[in-house]
Write a structure and sequence with these properties.
This protein is of the alpha+beta class and 308 residues long. The protein has helices spanning 16-26, 87-98, 159-169, 220-229, 288-291; strands spanning 6-13, 30-37, 40-49, 58-63, 77-84, 102-106, 110-114, 120-125, 149-155, 173-176, 179-183, 188-194, 208-215, 238-239, 244-249, 255-260. Strands 2-3-4-1-13-16-15-14 form an 8-stranded mixed β-sheet. Strands 6-7-8-5-9-12-11-10 form an 8-stranded mixed β-sheet, with helices on one face. A hairpin with a 4-residue loop joins strand 11 (179-183) and strand 12 (188-194). It starts with 5 loop residues before the first strand and ends in a 17-residue tail after the last helix.
Length: 308
């Protein structure tokens, strides 16, 4: 068995309207599912991805209106790294982000920046042959669009214990100092550690809640058994309707999920209209009259589509 790279990265926002604006208008991603947090259906769960909502491109957010800004610390992911197609795409990204993002920094290998709530991102030129996962945006040429996840970087706590889990249980392959690759039949993604800062981390807006890794539907139960055998005390397999999930904390403290590659976001929405309306999984539809009025009004994530 082999995990097919990063499935999605889930984060926290205090301001869904600004979040929608940044991730759709500025970064050029597509809002592919507007739904609720299935563990707390009073708040949004927003999914941004490529044009089809493909695993490997999907950054998601829980909205907790007004929650304090967080800070990445030991046992937390501190940077989400994206692939782009060329040095010219880095130039484009640097120029576009200069007026829209915070702490924009260009070095020899990429462009780093913070979203409006301090979540750190990095753009690097793709070094693999994985299919580019891009969204359509009138201001972002296809050749300069984000192509999906390259890596997540975390602050370590117990790197030796984490190494055993990553390599022996999850099948990650060491590709450098405290850096591993999870590579499956179609995609790969990196997981890396940096030395933790002295300052304690704080959960909140602008922080990563969990990182999900991709599994086939057929192998999902076997992954659960393998994680149990490693002593990680995973959750039961949870049906999220668009995918199935297993959750557990790896020894350095980062919350991992193993999520299936299907059924996918188009199972209950026309692919041409993903993300346009509030969609609730069937088990939550009876709550619509209660939750819809209390959710934050959102801007149109694709205003240009109405005039195209």
């Amino acid at each position: 068995m082999a995990l097919d790279g990063i499935h999605h990265v889930t984060c926290i926002t205090a301001d869904a309207p600004r979040n929608v604006d940044f991730y759709t208008r500025v970064l050029g991603l597509r809002l592919v599912k507007k739904t609720v947090n299935q563990d707390d259906p009073t708040v949004y769960h927003l999914f941004y991805a490529d044009e089809e909502g493909t695993p490997g491109s999907d950054i998601t957010f829980f909205e907790y209106p007004g929650v304090r800004r967080g800070r990445a610390g030991a046992g937390m992911v501190h940077t989400v790294q994206w692939r782009v197609g060329s040095a010219a795409a880095l130039d484009f990204g640097e120029s576009r982000l200069a007026a829209e993002a915070d702490a924009v920094d260009r070095d020899d290998t990429g462009v780093s920046f913070d979203d409006p709530e301090g979540l750190r991102h990095r753009l690097v030129v793709s070094s693999v042959e994985d299919e580019p996962l891009t969204a359509e945006h009138p201001e972002v040429p296809a050749e300069h669009a984000l192509q999906g996840f390259d890596a997540v970087r975390a602050f370590d706590v117990a790197p030796d214990a984490s190494r055993a889990l990553l390599e022996e249980t999850l099948g990650f392959v060491s590709v450098g100092e405290e850096t591993w690759e999870a590579r499956g039949p179609t995609r790969g993604g990196l997981y890396a550690y940096d030395e933790a800062p002295a300052e304690r981390g704080l959960g909140g807006a602008g922080t990563v809640h969990h990182v999900a890794w991709s599994s086939s539907l057929e192998e999902h139960e076997a992954w659960h058994e393998r994680v149990v055998a490693a002593g990680m005390h995973p959750s039961p397999i949870i049906d999220r309707f668009w995918f199935r999930s297993i959750y557990f904390r790896e020894p350095s403290g980062v919350l991992f999920e193993i999520a299936t590659l299907g059924p996918g976001f188009s199972v209950d929405e026309d692919p041409e209209h993903l993300g346009e309306t509030l969609i609730l999984p069937p088990a939550f539809e009876h709550l619509r009259a209660q939750v819809e009025p209390i959710l934050t009004p959102l801007p149109d994530p694709r205003p240009w589509a109405k005039t195209a």
